[in-house]
């Protein structure tokens, strides 16, 4: 079995089924924790350096590939290239290819499908190719711990380890408290919110995240 380097495989990688998953998942978990702590400490140079380390991490690529191609419900759904990775050799080959192109890849167009909604309308859904999904997961592991440290504590939407039940519990405790001043709840539906998000504003908010291309960059 070939040795694994810090930032990638050396020579031949071990077969997919022989990967030491617990060790690689622990590497990612520990690095995410360091990014979270550095953000809490306001040490932004350290945050960016740790994020660069995460983006170069072979453990991150392996864990991301496993999540996308083995665990996610959409693992058998192909993008516009028609390719999936449902066998162990295919997953390892795609992980190695993804890791080699981490600094140079150009995302492909997403496959557009439409999902019927209860009100008779259709919701557009974009399906990226497998490699792009892996890159997305890799970048999420670098970005998510930073923003988990920056988000408001009582924000629950689309956050890992949080749910509607958490929000309901906080509302109940707040409304039933002895010193409660507010006994009402505002329920608002932002129509097509995700369809109208300003992507330029999002990129500007992300700031100097290492993976964001800068003007004039090749």
Beta-strand residue fraction: 5-15%
Quote the average pLDDT: 87
Overall geometric form? globular
Task: Detail the poorly predicted runs.
Answer: 1-5, 214-218
Helical fraction: 40-55%
The count of strands amounts to 2
Placed side by side, the strands forming the largest sheet appear as 1-2
Number of helices: 7
Radius of gyration over all CA atoms, rounded: 20 Å
**Helix/strand structural class:** mainly alpha
Alpha-carbon distance between the two ends = 37 Å
The major beta sheet can be summarized as:
2 strands, antiparallel
The helix/strand series, from N terminus to C terminus, equals HHHHEEHHH
Structure description:
The protein is mainly alpha-helical and 218 residues long. 47% of the residues lie in helices and 6% in strands. It has seven helices and two strands. Helix 1 (21-40) packs across helix 3, helix 3 (58-71) crosses helix 4 (88-100) and helix 3 crosses helix 5 (130-150). It is globular and about 65 Å long. The two termini are 37 Å apart. Residues 1-5 and 214-218 have low confidence and may be disordered.
